[in-house]
Amino acid sequence: MKSSNRLSDLQALSADQLNDELLNLKKEQFNLRFQGATGQLENVARIREVRRDIARVRTLQRQKTLTAAKG
């Protein structure tokens, strides 16, 4: 249920907001990877969540691009 709520929240965003969200997620992913390398990471499952959120944002960006090209 958590991912469907996240998906509906992301679908409501504009293209610029999706770009900003993608940038924030990539920064978070970098920080999490850095923490993991230094042994400071407490929640290792968060890496997986962030990676999947990045995929969700990219998918939505692609869908919006395709619908804009068609219409």
TrEMBL record:
Q: Which SUPFAM superfamilies match?
A: Ribosomal protein L29 (L29p)
Q: Which Gene3D superfamilies match?
A: 1.10.287.310
**Pfam families noted in UniProt:** Ribosomal_L29 (PF00831)
Question: What keywords is this UniProt entry annotated with?
Answer: Ribonucleoprotein, Ribosomal protein
Q: Which GO terms of type biological process are on file?
A: translation
GO CC: one term?
cytosolic large ribosomal subunit
Task: Specify the domain of life of the species encoding this protein.
Answer: Bacteria
Q: Which CDD domains match?
A: Ribosomal_L29_HIP
Task: Drop me one GO molecular function for this one.
Answer: structural constituent of ribosome
Name of protein: Large ribosomal subunit protein uL29
Q: Which organism is it from?
A: Methylobacterium symbioticum
Q: List the lineage, top down.
A: Bacteria, Pseudomonadati, Pseudomonadota, Alphaproteobacteria, Hyphomicrobiales
